[in-house]
């Protein structure tokens, strides 16, 4: 069962209730919420208050992707805000194992994300403590970028590691996925697919999500 996670980064926040209802009705499995701090990445997006408010708008689990420096300082606030899943970048902290343990102790699922230049081997020492691994297929920071082809090989490597060490861990791909490559990323091993522009840019997010699902 492949889970689809529309990324709200590409949604129109002026009509966010409508955008969320559209993807929820069309069978989204998660809502992907990109948190950027102007430090780990140049852009700034949302904090825990927005996550708390989004929880009131939807029954979908919120998949919070923290692109923030020193996530050990504020990841817990996203658990308190109601996130179902909190993912932080391995590159952003020296305390990944401790943070994963702390987040899971709060009852939230926890994961780590890898930037395009970070090898899958970096997962070896944390995989047992992850509910999810996120392989970035663009450089983090904005939606609408082109898929980096090498990410396909990283997905295969991460799939092999997960199957060998921790089969319940989910494998999420994020960045540049759409109609042209959704089938290929799933074949490479992804079981959660994040999509921003491919879902929201055409103006009818529900129809776009149904079309993408049909390609699987
Ligand atoms: C990029 C974000 C992604 C982004 C994906 O830093 O992590 O979630 O919204 O957008 P698309 O699917 O347009 O690449
Ligand atoms: Zn993301």
The rounded Rg comes to 16 Å
Helix content: 25-40%
Proportion in β-strands = 15-25%
CATH fold group: TIM Barrel
CATH architecture, please?
Answer: Alpha-Beta Barrel
The helix-strand sequence is EHEHEHEHEEHEHEHH
Number of strands: 8
How many domains, as an integer?
A: 1
Mean pLDDT, to the nearest integer, reads: 98
List bound small molecules: D-xylitol-5-phosphate, zinc ion
Order of adjacent strands in the largest pleated sheet: 1-8-7-6-5-4-3-2
Q: Give the low-confidence spans.
A: none
Provide the structure class.
alpha/beta
How many helices? The count is 8
Largest sheet: 8 strands, parallel
Tell the overall outline.
globular
Brief descriptors of the model:
binds D-xylitol-5-phosphate; single chain; eight-stranded parallel β-sheet; 8 strands; 216 residues; alpha/beta; binds zinc ion; globular; TIM Barrel
Task: Give a verbal description of the structure.
The chain is α/β, with parallel strands linked by helices and 216 residues long. 33% of the residues lie in helices and 19% in strands. The protein has one domain: TIM Barrel (Alpha-Beta Barrel), CATH 3.20.20.70. The protein has helices at residues 16-25, 48-57, 75-80, 96-105, 151-165, 182-187, 197-200, 205-214; strands at residues 3-6, 31-36, 62-67, 85-89, 109-114, 132-136, 170-174, 192-195. Strands 1-8-7-6-5-4-3-2 form an eight-stranded parallel beta sheet. The longest helix has 15 residues, at 151-165. It is globular and about 40 Å long. The N and C termini lie close together (10 Å). The mean pLDDT is 98. Bound molecules: D-xylitol-5-phosphate (DX5) and zinc ion. The site of zinc ion has 6 residues, from strand 2.
